[in-house]
Design a protein that fits this description.
Elements (H helix, E strand, L loop, with lengths): L1 H16 L3 E7 L3 H15 L2 E7 L1 H9 L6 E3 L4 H8 L9 E6 L1 E5 L11 H4 L5 E4 L5 H13 L2 H4 L3 E4 L2 H9 L5 E5 L4 E2 L2 E2 L3 E4 L8 E7 L7 H10 L2 H9 L4
Parallel strand pairs: 1-2, 1-3, 6-7, 6-8
Antiparallel strand pairs: 3-12, 4-12, 5-8, 5-11, 9-10
Helix pairs in contact: 2-10
């Protein structure tokens, strides 16, 4: 009995040695999928994820200032590549974990039509979008308006948010009648779950390739490497697709 107990203690100690608490910076648009993925990953791996959600631009500044993140899941592909070049990301660790989709969304049923012609009608007061200097989805919104020839016409109606989460909140609260948000924020079970929306054709803006990168602080730790591998697996990919990503 004592021998069995000792063996159990040794096994538990070994498990704790190999379990990591992983600090992950996650683009705000990926909050809902990441929460689901984290729950499955923690069950399957024994590692624990401590996730922070925000704008990719702010995460870049924080990482450069020494923030103790080990993994970055960005909303673009440029920021991870830049961190890699500057030595803050581990060379060769970067890959695209999702391709995002932009949607023009209103919480009001029928307000946004299936072709986005509501923008041209201009019968609204406020259009929310994330800061294009910090958030790739905001930049994609600007590119969409440029492609449609509506940027200058609608510029005075912008309500600029710090992140895609805040842009969504502006629309969800009714402070803006409509706004450009990430499809993942409003997409459930194969459809826009609430209100009305126009999924913006991807030819109207640059592809929103979202890259992951292992950061220098995570190099050599088993947990961050395991998470990046997990993101490429079937279970994580199924979750990602269920939120409207490619």
């Amino acid at each position: 009995m004592l021998r069995q107990l000792s063996l159990a203690v040794v096994l538990l100690s070994a498990a704790s040695v190999h379990s990591d608490e992983i600090s992950v910076a996650v683009a705000a648009n990926f909050a809902s999928p990441m929460q689901k993925i984290a729950a499955e990953f923690e069950k399957d791996s024994g590692h624990t994820i401590v996730a922070s959600f925000g704008s990719t631009g702010k995460f870049y500044a924080q990482i450069k200032a020494g923030a103790p993140f080990e993994v970055l899941l960005a909303a673009d592909d440029e920021t991870p590549a830049r961190l890699e070049r500057e030595g803050d990301g581990v060379a060769g660790s970067r890959f695209t974990y999702a391709v995002g989709k932009l949607v023009l969304w209103s919480r009001r049923e029928g307000f946004v039509d299936a072709k986005g012609e509501v923008l041209g009608r201009n019968d609204f007061h406020h259009l929310a979008l994330a800061n294009p200097r910090l958030a790739p989805y905001g930049a994609a919104g600007i590119q969409t308006l440029q492609a449609l020839g509506l940027l200058e016409k609608l510029r005075l109606k912008f309500v600029t948010a710090e992140s895609i989460t805040q842009a969504y909140q502006f629309v969800a609260s009714g402070n803006a009648e409509l706004g450009f948000v990430a499809l993942s924020q409003v997409y459930r079970e194969g459809r826009i779950a609430e209100g009305s929306g126009w999924i913006v054709p991807q030819q109207l803006h640059d592809p929103i390739r979202q890259d992951a990168v292992l950061l220098a602080r995570g190099k050599g730790s088993s947990g961050p490497a395991a998470l990046l591998k997990y993101l490429r697996g079937d279970k994580a990919r199924s979750i990602i697709k269920s939120f409207g990503y490619e």
